[in-house]
Amino acid sequence: MSALKMIQIKNINLNNQTLTPLLKEKLQKQGYFSNTSAKDEIKITNTKTNELEIIKQNFEKIKKQQGLTGKFWDTIKNLFHLKTGSKFVEQSIKEYSEGKIAKEKVLEILDKYHEGQNISVDIMANIISGIASVGIFSLAASSFSLPVAMLLSFSTGAATKVGSKLFSAKTNNREYNNRNMQYDILTGGVNGLLAPIANGLGSTLEKVAASKLGLEISKDVAKNSTKSIFKTMLMNQNVEIIGKNSAKKALAVGAGMLAGSALSGAADNATRGALEGQDSHNILKSAQNGLLGGLILAPIIGGGFKLAVKLGKVIKNK
Fold first, then answer.
1. Which end of the chain is more exposed for a tag (fewer CB within 10 A), N or C?
2. Which band of pLDDT confidence, cut at 50, 70 and 90, is reported for residue 48?
């Protein structure tokens, strides 16, 4: 063994915490380093340790920036074991520390998590604006013309989204400028127009499902028909099923909620993609992701639509 190698070994403390188990084993078994010096090996180990700490710190920083909306959305993603949730990021960081995946891969996963959390604020604002728009539309459609009801729906969607995003920005120390407001007015307004259409389609499907299952529909809905199929669908914002068969009612209501929520999510994501300048392929992909998200959040979106319509009906009857 050369003098240089002997010096390298003597200058290494095998109990040094910066040494990996693999490096310690190599020192003990071989007594020397075959390709690089001990100094280089330790430098590489220290570099990875520092990079791992930086990744962990960035991850914790992103998590701390999340408000109630971000935390709620992350909980949903973790519940369904999605690859954009914090649990998946934690697992990826662990795999990187064990040498199972490359640094580039874990950074890519962290970036997707960060991007997804930022979008979540926008998604939840759209959900809120959509529910509010459905409530206003159902209230206005029975008293005003369809164009007026749609205009009010657009205005409600825009105002609600701006208010929601502004509140989120102020409570989480984020910037909210004129460009953000213009984007939210446009996307919130479009969402306000699309939400009653999605809910109307969902309610129409619920009505068809209820009829096929032999359930009775409330007279107000059953008689609500016009020469225009589109207008008929829009006026069917809520279906009241009469009957004691709770299983069949649940099936019909569930079908309507899933359809309305999925269509709303798909329309929302597709609109966002188009405004961001995505090509047709990516817009379609965005719509598919939105449809999946709508299905997952059906109890919130679909249930919110129904609650908003009922609230509008209560206000009208007062």
1. C
2. low
